[in-house]
């Protein structure tokens, strides 16, 4: 393999790929034995892997520079043409599920493999190809609109991420000024974002209607691979958050105000944990990657091999720059069995979180692509994948002195607080989306009202200090998942609850906790959500009392800390 920057990109001939896939489908139908059928299936799998790799490479380079006209045009081509593969891919899945070799495939790859294919057949249809293309186009338009936002802040040109470090300043006036600039950026682009979201809602509702669903939420749950639970399960989970976690975070905010010497915490104070300033990394990008190399070398043989591979082939893009897509993510180049980590470093502890959280995703992808032969089973659904990432944040706690020096304990405390405090916000995002798709004709103003009422329910401490845009419900716009990955965000909360169970065991028996974590990563998506949790001995978060049991120790640790 070459370094990432040297990997060649050539536009794929999608029309030719469609014809090739049709030939595979016809050969599959003609197969006389399971071995013949399996060979055709694996040949088609190679084509899938190749196309997925090309699409991933293009997408990464597009997000690295949203102003690059070449990759923008390539993304437009792929978004328009890749859905044309749906009919041929669907035909082969139908042949596996309904054909004479179903039992053989189930024996070879497991019952969950068949369940995944059956679910795909309920979400993939050539009738919705125009809507899928439109959804992709709108998503790209959103990414460009958000990435283009910038503002001058005290002589520095900042995007949203660039302002966040100023919102952690020990100078409250600087924090407030940065907060106002941040809010003004969103307000300035709000009309555009409202328009894009209206169109995204419309196209998603139309897809659901064409496929015979009562509403988009049903289709979205299937798109997310949620085979074990329903919106009713999630609603009960959110109620556990409201009754157990919200009061604890409310107490935490009051303690934070006292620590900072304030009467109460405003929004722009929330991210400042200590009056003397948060623990920030003691070095830049190259220093931190070097320290991460040592950390993963010490953590386990598997993590050493993985991170050495990442650094050897430069599978990172970490620094913020103009025109770069917001946020961070981990993706993969499956043909090379190579994960890729993307982020926007801003000089805060969030940079270190990238080297643990996204590396957790990448570590599982590295293992899955080497241990599991079928792409659809190499990774799991997102509520499991986020356990991989969030747990790695905690497993790396012993090495935080490498990044924060003598303030490592402060970082660990702040990280634990943040891990708990963000869960009610995740519930807000999820309930907001359920309301939006329950009432898809809501106006932009009505949506903001819904957001603000939900926010008060789960985050009663939130105080925007009179900022009219946010007081009227504009804060929802800052979460790109709402635009790009509908209904994803609650998966972070589900995963965090499971991660707290791992964290509790880490403190008692680190080797046992790591063994179970490694077992989960190696299993990939070979089992369903509930079965995977049972496989590694983690309670399902929907069970009565599961949330309270998971967070009890975390709350006690936070409230008994010396800070």
Describe the structure.
By secondary structure, the chain is mainly alpha-helical. It has 3 domains: 131 residues; 198 residues, no CATH class; 172 residues, no CATH class. It contains 26 helices and 5 strands. The longest helix is centred in the middle third of the chain and has 39 residues. The protein is globular and about 75 Å long.
Task: Give the topology.
Elements: H1 14-30, H2 34-64, H3 69-81, H4 86-98, H5 102-109, H6 111-121, H7 129-147, E1 151-153, E2 156-158, H8 160-164, H9 172-210, H10 216-223, H11 231-260, H12 285-299, H13 301-312, E3 316-319, E4 329-333, E5 338-345, H14 350-371, H15 375-378, H16 382-395, H17 401-404, H18 408-421, H19 423-438, H20 444-458, H21 468-471, H22 480-484, H23 490-508, H24 510-523, H25 529-535, H26 546-560
Parallel strand pairs: 3-5
Antiparallel strand pairs: 1-2, 4-5
Helix pairs in contact: 1-2, 1-4, 2-3, 3-7, 4-6, 5-6, 7-9, 9-10, 11-19, 11-26, 12-13, 12-14, 14-16, 16-23, 18-26, 19-20, 19-23, 23-24, 23-26
Keywords: Hydrolase, Metal-binding, Metalloprotease, Protease, Zinc
Family: Belongs to the peptidase M3 family.
GO biological process, one term: proteolysis
